[in-house]
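Reviewer has doubts. Consider these tokens.
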Amino acid sequence: MKGVILAGGLGSRLSPMTRATNKHLLPVYDQPMVFYPIKTLVDAGITDIMIVVGGPHAGDFLSVLKNGKELGIRNLGYAFQDSGDGGIADALRLTEDFVAGDNVTAILGDNTTDANIKTAVKNFRSSAKLFLKEVPDPQRYGVPVFDRKDPKKIIKIEEKPKNPMSNYAVTGLYIYDPRCFDFIRELKPSLRGQFEITDLNNKYIENGEVDWEVLEGFWTDAGTPDSLFTANAYWAKKMEGK
């Protein structure tokens, strides 16, 4: 299993803070934001990791992460998303050579969670696995629509719906088999000009090949001022309690 951290994009929702550095290097309590998704992967036994970076501050990652050894990474690679904000699926596409036919666990660089996904990674064989979390503001995320006859079955995912069909968000944590890269090549840009990870997930859903589970414990993205504050408050309380 390979690991990919998707840390491209311009971080415009966190401007002016992101004028100084990449969004994923902003502090969440006592660590850079990207340390949290790294720990999620390493704790799951994934130590071959590629980070997809982008924007004017991409080089800042090298001085912070170095070769990754201090964080438990065995092999650390980087890919540069030069399309600015081409979308999450576009960023994942850049890691195909690194993944090299293996399965891949991908996580967004602004996701912080204390959930342990080691069992899910160990038991994964093929297709796709999504991790969901109940949230108060599902309209900010991709939202699963469940089959009314079979509530365990997802029939589609709607991207940032105005009227969400459930209170669950598709978190920025996914496990894919290597066919994901073939599916990405079939995608077309969305109305906002991006290659959406939701469209990739819907490809698997159309084939009836998506599994899912709810993340246990804390999870939030940290991509807006409010969610960045939420992440800081949680991790400060958790770490001070140790």
Notes: The mean pLDDT is 95.
